[in-house]
Amino acid sequence: MKAFKYLSPTTVEEAIAFHSRHSETAKYIGGGTDVIVKVKEGWMEPDYLISLKKIGDMSELHKNDATGELSIGAMVTHATLEKSLMIRNEYPIIHDAVSNIGSLQVRNVGTIGGNLINAVPSADGAIPLIALDGMALLHGPDGERSVEVKDLFIAPYKTILKPREILKKITIPPQAPHTGSAYIKFGRRAAMELPLIGIGVLLTLDDDLQTCPRARICLGVAAPTPMRAFDAENFLVGKKIDENILIEAGKIAADESKVRDSVRGKAWHRKEMILVHVRRMGLKCLNMIKDNN
Amino acid sequence: MSKNNSEFSVVGKRIPKLDAAQKAMGRAEYIQDVKLPGMLFGKILYSKHAHANIVKIDTSKAKALAGVHAVLTGEDVPKKMKMGFIKDNPPIKKGNVCSLRDEVAAVAAISPEIAKKALDLIEIEYEELEGIFDPEKAMEKDSPLVHEHLKSNVLKMPWNIHYGDVEKAEKESAFVVEDRFTTTWVTHCCMGTSGAVALFDASENLTIYTNTQIPSLAHKDFLEALKAMGLENKRVRVIKPVIGGGFGSKLDTYAYEHIAILLAYKCRKPVKIVFDRVEEFKATSTRQPTVTYIKQGCDKNGKLTFRDMRMVLDNGGHTSWGATTPSVMLMPISSLYRVENVKYNAKCVYTNNTYSQAMRGYGNPQATFAIESSMDMLAEKAGIDRIEFRKINKNQSGDETPQGLKITSCGLEECIDAVKEELKFDGKNEKGIGTGIASLIHVGGGARIYGSDGCGAILKMDDYGKVDIFTGGTDMGQGLDNITAQIVAEELGLLAEDINVVHSDTDICPWDVGAHASRSTFVAGNAALGAAKKVKKKIQVFASKLFDVPAQEIELKDKLVFVPGDREKSMLIGKLLRKAHFRPGGTMLMAEHFYDPDNENMGKELKGNMSMTYSFGAHGAKVKVDEETGKVEVLEYVAAHDVGRAINPLLLEGQVYGGVIMGLGYALTEEVTVKDGEIMNANFRDYKLFTAKDAVKIKAPVIETDDKDGPFGAKGIGEPGCVPTAPAIANAIYDAVGVRIKDLPITPEKVLAALKDKNG
User: Which domains, from first to last, does chain B contain?
Assistant: First the structure.
């Protein structure tokens, strides 16, 4: 492994300044569960690693009770999210996703921000944040900007972040009443697993507890970047949701996915898994809404 | 039973592994920890193509790199330096490569980083040749040849047998089933990666530290290597550091060992080669993939009439012990259940894939997958309950099988009953849930594959009641140290911690054929017991003079030498040893014993009692199949084994749990994905080894049949845990949802495809 210097700035500004000083030879590092692997394998050869760990507010997980907005610092670990009762109760889709990332050890150090910025098609962390209409707050040399989490990704390992820009936090707008959400990672084993396919569903129902004004179906490993199945979502909007409708939505989502054959799994099976799990996750959402009512 | 477990003091006790603290505290010394003054680091360059001619190699830039001490190519390897039992594999290839793991050059440098950099500077021009990657296609007439000079891809191996009259038996059968089963590459996944450190002394004698399961045979291989290098009449010392897992992977000597020797000789310095994980996946050998055609029949009462099997094994580009696994496959094929008429033909075929080696079970898992899947199919066709069907055909003590295996003790029926009882086979299952059973036979009393199946032991006692025992046997994590210590302690009336087991240094320890064939407890155990008995006799003779009683009246227990019932005639063993030693004409107590079991080499007709005794077992699984995804969840698992006697039930359970988890991976998740000879998943992310979270609860009933030849009645149990796992799972899946998967591993894709096929 190539030697590097490890810098620990305490503010975002300082981090950006460090990065500016060392330009191309510096990389930001979060929990390090992806970066260190890349350095060890020689895929990345930085002279400086700039840790974001000591930037206090980047590790904050906070829900504003007045506005209902959830704020997740980019350096919040998967384990913190996994153990949060608030997350488990109010944002079950996040809980579902983070509690199956890697192993206990990986979740203890790996961060949600790092998971997004690593930008793999299989990123478990991205799917729920997209389904929840999350916004990513980016901070660069020219100041801050806000983008939808779904628009962060360009290609595998590639995001829209500009040089030196830092993902500071993700905000989740207040959730409508009668909302349920769920995620499943479908793989061959129970830990240390990349999903063969990841399926997240979020459903909101009107006061009649039947009609759906808003639906999100988000898929991992179904395309080069995490994707939303817009056709399937649009199909659900305005309809009274039942199992048959969800089966239809599953078919549409499978059709619009861009799954492919790889050494890890076959496209037909991935499609089939989308079909099955859009229904299963959808039903889980409906049950949640009923239980909470 | 000659003796009850309660009558033993040390045998039968759950004594934790003697090296547990050492390992847990990070103090055990693995090959990675071996550091010698002046040591250089070797690295190996592998072929870029699965099949090619080497047109030109230019090593000048690598040689010029500062810190590089030597660069070797095939040209630097002595002509007669070859590996494998048919010696078809030079440690660095010259002129031609036939797999992507073929070594084409090697470097020694002052650091691993420089060595790696030097590899990148070696320029090689290849002329690519057409590769062949499917063994069945490789047998076709116009197939490309892996080795041009051999004129055929099929190895000349003797695997063709016919006991009884299969054709006649088939005609007379009431029910016959026939099918094709396939298995793929899986690999050992030892936690400790492979490696060696070689050095020569001033007189050109070789010392090599290496991860090996066969110190004595490796010693022989390295002597031959030295001879090929022109170093005649030299000494070789093989030292085995603590091994992080063997599972058969270290049953041969490998290119990295021979290359370390060549580099050390050239540089006159110690040279260390240690694999990283990717190299471990790509350049070590796998279990061999098989294509199996099986036909079996029974009469109207369910009695097996014949078994006819044909196999094609992917040998890869070179030959190691993988090509001899049919000799062990023959055992379940001829002798799992009573069947008089047996036919078996196996062809080992060269391809441009990685070459195979020994892996836990040595062919038995592949053969048993086909046999036990087919047993269920035949039972169903005959309309007989599958448990009943197995009991009708069960092996029994006193049987001699068509292959000539003499079954001395057999607890197969008890094992089957234990599984039936635990899993409640008669109960009705919910939809999608099913149960499956599969049995096993394996060698449990050594296995005579070489001229000797022996093991030596030297035992010496100090002046204080402590023992050093130098055994030929090898502990590679399986626990032979404990077994040896418990056997010796039992015999000499000591505690296990009084026994220091020294193993795996060929300068110090006697000969042993190796830690394979589940033979260590039986063979190395008997060697240790033999030495302990001799020392015990000496103690008794000496004490008989002290106490003035006949020697046979003297007992050893709780560190005392005493005459039962006579409190006056009792002495601490340490005191007795001092009395024997510190006197004019004194003596110290030591003994040696070489134990070679009375088993037989298979002759030309492939008949003979290859083991002194056989271990049996039955595994049962309860699974839940998700019919929409094809995913299989193992709800319960029972692995019952006839072990003769459990010398250490704790370690025995460990062996069984580990074996079952390995077997479950084989059944459900593990495969080395190979595309045109290239390994596509050389990492633990994509090679789906079971994780702790995937582990299932395993019950491991122990059946003790007190084998007459085993040490304290014990039989070998190292491998059986992973032998019948896959068919037990496959049979349970069939019971659950009515689809039979005949190709391992049983992935959700395969199950779902089969379900879709069935439901139209």
Answer: 5-27+454-595 (3.30.365.10), 34-129+194-274 (3.90.1170.50), 290-394+405-448+602-759 (3.30.365.10)
Measure Cα distances from B650 to B646, B655, B708 in Å: 9, 9, 23
Tell me: do A205 and A255 sit in the same domain: yes
Kindly state whether A37 is in contact with chain B, defined as any CB-CB distance less than 8 angstroms. Answer: no
pLDDT digits (tens, 9 = 90+) for B58-70: 999 999 999 999 9
Whether chain A has a CB inside 8 Å of the CB on B111: the answer is no
Cβ-Cβ contacts under 8 Å between A and B: the total is 44
Taking the CA of residue B437 and the nearest CA in chain A, the distance in Å comes to 23
Q: What pLDDT, on the 0 to 100 scale, is given for residue B696? A: 95
Which residues in chain A are contacts of B630 at CB distance < 8 A?
Answer: 269
Burial B562-598 (b: 16+ CB within 10 A, else e): bbeeeeebeeebbebbbebeeeeeeeebebbbbbbbe
Among A122, A142, A172, the domain-final residue is A172
Residue A57 lies in a domain: no
CA nearest A104 in B: which residue? B693
The reported pLDDT for the residue numbered B2 is: 58
- Reported ipTM: the value is 0.95
Hey, is B423 helix, strand or coil? helix
CATH number, domain containing residue A210: 3.30.390.50
pTM (predicted TM-score): 0.96
Same domain, A226 and A268: yes
Nearest to A276 among B629, B680, B686 (CB): B629
Q: ∠ CA B358-B364-B367 to the nearest 5 degrees?
A: 125
Percentage of chain B with pLDDT > 90?
96
Please tell me which residue of chain B has the smallest CA distance to A276: B628
> Which residues, 6 or more positions from B27, have their beta carbon under 8 angstroms from its beta carbon?
none
| In a shared domain, residues A167 and A183 | no
- Whether A142 and A229 share a structural domain: no
Side-chain half-sphere CA neighbours of A268 within 13 A = 7
Q: Given an 8 Å threshold on Cβ–Cβ distance, is A269 in contact with B684?
A: no
Cβ distance of B747 and A273 shorter than 8 Å = no
In the sheet that holds B160-163, the strands lie side by side as B160-163, B341-350, B304-316, B290-298, B175-183
Tell me, yes or no, whether A29 lies in a domain: yes
CA–CA gap between residue B47 and residue B107 (Å, rounded): 15
Phi, psi values for residue B91, rounded to 5°: -65, -30
pLDDT for B545-562, tens place per residue?
999 999 999 999 999 999
8 Å CB contact between B179 and B294? yes
Q: Which residues of B touch A188 (CB under 8 A)?
A: 668-669, 688, 747-748
Is there a domain that residue A58 lies in?
no
Of A103, A191, A263, the CB nearest to B681: A263
Closest CA to B746 of B726, B721, B728, B732: B726
- The tally of domains found in chain A comes to 3
CB contact under 8 A, B694 and A265: no
Q: What is the 3-state secondary structure (H, E, C) of A221-271?
A: CCCCCCEECHHHHHHHCCCECCHHHHHHHHHHHHHHCCCCCCCCCCHHHHH
Closest Cα in chain B, distance from residue A275 (Å): 10
Question: Tens of pLDDT along A39-76?
Answer: 998 899 999 999 999 998 999 999 999 999 999 999 99
Per-residue confidence (pLDDT) for residue B4, from 0 to 100: 77
Q: What is the mean pLDDT of residues B189-199?
A: 97
Give dist(CA A123, CA A117) in Å, integer. Answer: 9
Write out the residue range of the structural domain in which residue A189 sits: 179-292
